[in-house]
Amino acid sequence: MNILAPRQWTMVQNVSDAYLSYEKAFAQRIPFESLTDSSSPWPVYPAKSEGPVTLGTLPGGRTLTGNVIRTRMPDDNNLPAFGGNATTATNPAEMQTWILQSHVTYTISGRDYVKSRTIVRTQ
Hints:
By secondary structure, the protein is α+β, with helices and mostly antiparallel strands. 24% of the residues lie in helices and 37% in strands. It is elongated, with a radius of gyration of 18 Å.
C-alpha cells in the first residue's frame, strides 16, 4: 500500500486547479473584441479549439500535461447578429453575453480526469 498516493493525488488536483485559475483569468481579461472575432481562442459552439498544455510541474521535476478544449455559446438574449433570439425591444441596449467554457483533460496513473470552468462575459 502506498501511503503517499493520497498526497500525490491532492498535489495533482491542486496543480490542475491552478491551471484552471489561469484559464479563468485569461477568459476574464481578453478584450471583448478579441473574444468575439473569428480568431478567438473560444470559437462559437459547436466549433472548438483544442490543444496540449502544461498544467504544471510536480515535485521531482515530473511535468503534468493535459489537453484544453475551449468553446463559447451566445446567450439567448443576444441579438440575432450575435447568435441570440432577442429583438431591440427585449435587448434595447444591444448587450452581448457569451458563455465561455474551458475543459481540461489529463491522465494520471491510467485514469482520465476532466475539469471545467464556465465564465460569463457581457458587454
